[in-house]
Design goal:
The protein folds into two domains: 137 residues, Diaminopimelate Epimerase, Chain A, domain 1; 142 residues, Diaminopimelate Epimerase, Chain A, domain 1, CATH 3.10.310.10. The radius of gyration is 18 Å and the shape is globular. The chain has an 18-stranded mixed beta sheet that branches. It is built from seven helices and 18 strands. Helices cover 23% and strands 41% of the residues. The N and C termini lie close together (5 Å).
Length: 291
């Protein structure tokens, strides 16, 4: 029997049982990919990660990321939560405030800033590409969301290692009011070949610049509580339409209120570089037993 360290970490929060949970299995060299996928389906979280020794001398550790249905090349909250678990467990340590993570999207640079309230971890997302979707897909998207679209900034298909369909709802209250049709979201996600749909609107609170929601029922995740790649995609959307100046090159995205998991994602845009991150807290710690 194999016994592996296991942590469940809440990400984009400093309060246990808020933010977005990720399951992290540490030292998982003995776990076959098919077993990783079964474990990810069993945890029933939006993502489960497996920490391994790096295959590159340029990385501190290697990470495999699984949704309940498939492996992902990159995801934001699993990256931040796994880095937290890696540091906490001693599997790897920052050097001069830096960590390097190897994953299917390549080797990613992470920064670790020790603040008065804990370690703030930021990651540079893979280079973003953003393109408009075809007009033929717009009726499917409107049907899925159940609301007209704001066509002054048409929806974009944004790839940051994870591919999202981005929709600007303009106002936070419009984001909060959405009651999307999950079956229709699966249809549009498959038709557009995306993970799911992320919507956002300008915040009306004093804590954040935008409110965000991310829906990925095609991946077994009806609503992702606080989505790092979704927030990176929002930044890419704002950059594409030259709206960054309206929000600032550094801002916070707020997400998860509608599912009781209120969290905040720090976002930084510097030229072509988009960084996302925040804090994390371990809520469950133990072992995973494998036959």
């Amino acid at each position: 029997m194999q016994i592996l360290p296991f942590k469940q970490v809440d990400v984009f929060t400093q309060k246990p049982f808020w933010g977005n949970p990720v399951a992290v299995v540490i030292g998982a060299e003995c776990v076959e990919p098919a077993e990783m996928q079964r474990i990810a389906a069993w945890t029933n979280l939006s993502e489960t990660t497996f920490v391994l020794r790096p295959s590159s001398a340029n990385a501190d550790y290697r990470l495999r990321i699984f949704s309940p249905k498939q492996e992902l090349p990159f995801a934001g909250h699993p990256t931040i939560g796994s880095a937290h678990a890696v540091i906490e467990s001693g599997f790897a340590s920052p050097r001069e405030g830096k960590l390097r993570q190897e994953c299917l999207a390549g080797i990613l640079d992470l920064s670790v800033e020790i603040t008065e309230t804990g370690a703030k971890i930021m990651v540079q997302a893979p280079a973003a590409t953003a393109v408009r979707i075809s007009d033929e897909l717009l009726p499917l998207l409107i049907s899925a969301l159940g609301t007209p679209l704001m066509m002054n900034t048409p929806p974009l298909r944004v790839d940051v290692g994870v591919v999202w369909l981005l929709v600007n709802m303009e106002k936070a209250n419009a984001v909060a009011a959405l009651r999307p049709d999950m079956e229709a979201l699966v249809t549009i996600s498959n038709a557009a070949q995306v993970t799911g749909v992320t919507v956002f609107g300008r915040s009306d609170d004093q804590a954040s610049a935008v409110h965000v929601r991310s829906f990925a029922p095609a991946q077994g995740v009806p609503e992702d509580p606080v989505c790092g790649s979704g927030n990176a995609s929002v930044a890419a959307f704002l950059k594409h339409y030259d709206l960054i100046k309206q929000y600032g090159a550094r801002y916070y995205g707020r997400q998860g209120m509608q599912v009781g998991r209120d969290g905040q994602v720090a976002v930084s845009v510097d030229g072509e570089k988009i960084k996302i991150g925040g804090y994390a807290v371990t809520c469950v710690e133990g072992t995973l037993r494998l036959k």
